[in-house]
Amino acid sequence: MTAEVNIKMVCTKCGLRPATTEIWQRYNDRTEKMFLCDECAKDYKPNVGFDDFCVLDKLMENSPISLLSGLSSFFGDEKETKKLICPNCRTTADEFLNTGFVGCTRCYEVFEPLIARTVKKIQQSDRHVGKKPQGADVGGSDAARLKEELQEAVDSRDYARISAISDKLRKLEGNGEV
Amino acid sequence: MSDNTIISTRIRLARNVDGLPFPHKLNELGARQITDGVERALSGVSRFTRYDMNGISRLDGTILQEKHLISPDLLTDSRFGSVLIGADETASVMVNEEDHIREQVILPGLSLDAAYERIQKIDDAIASNMKLAFSPRYGYLTSCVTNLGTGMRASVMMFLPGLTLKKLIDACITDVGRLNMTVRGVYGEGSEAEGYLYQISNQRTLGVTEREILDSVGGAINHIVDAENRARGLLLRNETELKDKIYRAYGLATNAYKLSTAEAMYVLAMIRLGAYYGYINVNNVDALTDLTTRCRPANMQKLSGKNLSIEERDVLRAKFLSANIKSLAQKSE
Ligand SMILES: [Zn+2]
Ligand SMILES: [Zn+2]
After folding, report:
1. Where are the domains of chain B?
2. pTM of the entire structure?
3. What pLDDT tens digit does each residue of chain A (178 aa) get?
4. Which residue of A28, A37, A40, A56 is the best one to mutate when testing the B interface, meaning the one whose CB has the most B CBs within 10 A?
5. Contact list, B22 vs chain A (CB under 8 Å)
6. Of the options 1.10.3380.30, 3.30.70.1230, 3.30.230.10, 3.30.590.10, the CATH number for the domain spanning B10-131
């Protein structure tokens, strides 16, 4: 982008010389743009951070978090997963991996195994515990949620939790909710 | 009221409407549908004014950006972006930026709870008018996975000349990084040219409650305030030097014939620091913050009412700043 005629761009770093280079970087909830002069552009070192998706992609390739067993057998191997395209918005798995952006809510289902790993990596969690919108379909019964928790407990071999959750599930099912 | 170190608190919530593609895949019809929906929802909260990015000049848009009411992205990259701004300019809602809806409240000083309370009203009004994209597992669904869950960023703008001048800022950034916080210069890198202004905000949005986010940001802020106060104590070891720096800056602010944006940021920062040490009497610290915004390029341009070269703008800025500083701040002796 060239600087606007009526608002001349000055280098955002030194604030002295006219800006000649535009640099993009992802930070938390936004993509930041810096406009640098030749001098400052020479010294610019990209800040490798939480939201740097080029780095993220590399991290994921060595990720110790493997796909959930059920899903990975469904999708075949990882190469197959990377060929996925969202039927609703045409976003590709590659697009998601390179940018961290999905195109629609449906993408969250289509790319689930990829998203699960990415999310866990950058958020250190994959479970929402905060506010819910009023009247939202919070989806899933108590039983469904317990079953998910049970799977997690099994995965982590947390035997005390396994038996506690199984008890709760048995009670629920006894009430005929499922 | 803001104090010397904590300038303002901002809370943002990212929301999307269920059933429509995210903004970068959205067509004009869908975009308009969302903007109209948000406008309708907000009419029940209080008076909001709508600006469509396609319908305002680049200059007016840049002014909104310099006031932190919209993001640079909304101005330059959104295809059908709009913003709705509350009458007192503390609340604003960006539409079709990175997400369909970005709610924002900014309050002076450290006001995490008050800002959250205000944004809840906006959020609930929107949620009761439009079905929001939400999954039980990932919470509020957002176009980028960095905002999933609560979709919430709580950030505090801080004035940190002590840590910057004492070269302790990097250590401090690493410290609060361990608390899952991000530290960023407000206008880029937080250097002298930017008035030592930094934004501290939470990194994680998923797997934490809104309350936990507010508490963790608040905790980090307290930690940084302590560190900044210690650093300002260290600056006093060379008081003659410090006093001289501050008085020279005051001299520049009141006597220079031309001032660049960077110089204006610097002198305003030094006057604010001078107020902390009692070298300069400042009637109203918030007015200093306001001047920081009004000295930015687009605001200057607007003030003049005509197209200015960089040089003409710098002359106007010096005149403007001198008049304001003379009535706002006096050397104490
Ligand atoms: Zn520069
Ligand atoms: Zn999609």
Report:
1. 10-131, 237-331
2. 0.79
3. 333 333 557 777 777 777 777 776 666 666 666 777 888 777 776 543 333 333 333 333 333 232 222 333 334 455 666 778 999 999 998 888 888 899 999 999 999 888 888 888 888 888 999 999 876 554 445 666 676 677 777 777 777 777 777 777 777 655 544 3
4. A28
5. 89, 101-104
6. 3.30.590.10
